[in-house]
């Protein structure tokens, strides 16, 4: 987006790439737009992303906003070349039906500014319709980036100095079902590790464990360049809630998956998304989700207090009282903080391989944040002696740069 805007000669333009996953994300986007305009009254403002895709009109009606682009339009050079910042109301909206999009437009990216980690999108959209989720209406149906393009992109980033790549998408375990050649996420991972031999670290974003294929499990077990940190889209630990969410797994399957993964790779750590206070959730149902934190040995929790998204089936189900939702969310967060602290303390005294993010911070292979005692060069892989923990982070001293 930045390249397209720059090539189109735009200056003093701010692009807001919004999120629609919760009502709160959308509220924050509006707040940030107003603040940006106050601080820079001469700037032109473009709003795009999922919130713009699902609710274009509400952004077009903001006087601070000059143009609203859909998720497909934001990636097209033409949208920036033909931009007119003098329009009003409905005329500002350039948003097409995202459900009509069947391919991902490959975008060859050279770098990520001063970030030390690169992100490569391998898939977009989702064919599922979980009852709480607005994402498919922002992103459309599932479509995959052909493997050859993923490999070209990764090798380009490696040439540009990136040591770690994260594979991203909305439903990455659905990878390949729309492509010829019987591809899957696991097969893609194996293929790209083979064809990008100089890539030091590969990381996966969130996966749906019931969709994990044998090749993926094999890769997690045997590919040391695939990082031992998996984020799981679990959402709940109660079968009735999972059914009402229209998820495709049961509680026991999550527990079994985590056990199987631990057997395959002993040091693996899990993150997970969990929703607190889904409609109709009773105390007993909530306890089943809470106990999943220990049973699945989850280290990093993303806890979402349930908020209804207009137009989704769950928004029409009997809602849980807001105070109870907040209370359950804080109990889940406390359980997560506890487990994270246990994990971090277990790292004290070890030497770990870490990617430096800034001169004084790094992340371990397990994605644990590390504060470094002395300054180093961002974007390098170093050995760090872990000396202690504080405030949910490791503390450590760099021992030396690792051979790639
Ligand atoms: S699988 Fe994920 S993105 Fe797709 S509908 Fe469900 S929660 Fe939303």
Description:
By secondary structure, the protein is α/β, with parallel strands linked by helices. Helix content is 34%, strand content 23%. The protein has 13 helices and 17 strands. The chain has helices at 2-7, 23-39, 50-54, 56-60, 77-81, 135-139, 147-159, 185-195, 214-222, 239-245, 251-264, 283-295, 322-347; strands at 13-18, 44-49, 67-69, 93-94, 117-121, 123-124, 143-144, 164-168, 201-204, 229-235, 269-276, 298-305, 351-356, 361-364, 369-372, 381-390, 393-401. Strands 13-14-15-17-16 form a five-stranded mixed β-barrel. The longest helix is centred in the last third of the chain and has 26 residues, at 322-347. It is globular, with a radius of gyration of 22 Å. The chain binds iron/sulfur cluster. Iron/sulfur cluster is lined by residues 126, 128-130, 133, 135-136, 170-171, 233. Iron/sulfur cluster (SF4) binds at residues 126, 128-130, 133, 135-136, 170-171, 233.
């Amino acid at each position: 987006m930045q390249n397209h805007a720059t090539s189109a000669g735009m200056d003093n333009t701010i692009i807001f790439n919004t999120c629609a996953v919760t009502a709160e994300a959308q509220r924050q986007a509006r707040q940030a737009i107003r603040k940006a305009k106050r601080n820079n009254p001469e700037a032109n403002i473009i709003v795009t992303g999922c919130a713009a895709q699902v609710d274009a009109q509400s952004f077009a009606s903001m006087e601070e906003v000059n143009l609203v682009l859909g998720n497909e339009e934001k990636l097209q050079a033409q949208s920036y070349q033909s931009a007119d910042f003098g329009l009003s109301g409905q005329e500002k909206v350039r948003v097409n039906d995202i459900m009509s999009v069947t391919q991902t437009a490959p975008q060859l990216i050279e770098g990520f500014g001063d970030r030390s980690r690169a992100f490569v999108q391998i898939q977009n959209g989702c064919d599922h319709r979980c009852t709480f989720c607005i994402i498919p209406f922002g992103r459309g149906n599932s479509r995959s980036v052909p493997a050859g393009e993923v490999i070209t992109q990764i090798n380009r980033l490696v040439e540009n100095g990136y040591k770690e790549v994260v594979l991203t998408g909305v439903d990455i375990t659905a990878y390949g079902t729309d492509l010829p050649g019987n591809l899957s996420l696991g097969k893609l991972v194996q293929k790209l590790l083979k064809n990008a031999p100089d890539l030091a670290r590969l990381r996966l974003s969130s996966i749906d464990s019931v969709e994990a294929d044998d090749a993926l499990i094999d890769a997690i077990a045997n590919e040391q360049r695939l990082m031992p940190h998996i984020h799981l889209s679990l959402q709940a630990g109660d079968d009735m809630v999972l059914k009402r969410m229209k998820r495709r797994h049961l509680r026991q399957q999550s527990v079994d998956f985590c056990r199987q993964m631990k057997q395959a790779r002993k040091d693996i750590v899990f993150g997970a998304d969990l929703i607190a206070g889904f409609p109709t959730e009773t105390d007993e149902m909530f306890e089943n989700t809470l106990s999943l934190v220990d049973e699945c040995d989850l280290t990093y929790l993303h806890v979402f207090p349930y908020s209804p998204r207009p137009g989704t089936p769950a928004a029409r189900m009997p809602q849980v009282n807001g105070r109870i939702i907040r209370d359950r969310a804080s109990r889940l967060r406390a359980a997560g903080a506890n487990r994270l602290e246990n994990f971090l303390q277990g790292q004290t005294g070890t030497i770990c391989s870490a990617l430096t993010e800034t001169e004084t911070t790094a992340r371990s292979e397990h994605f644990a944040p590390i504060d470094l005692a002395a300054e180093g060069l961002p974007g390098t892989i170093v050995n760090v002696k872990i000396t202690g923990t504080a405030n949910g982070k490791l503390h450590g001293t760099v021992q030396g740069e690792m051979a790639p």
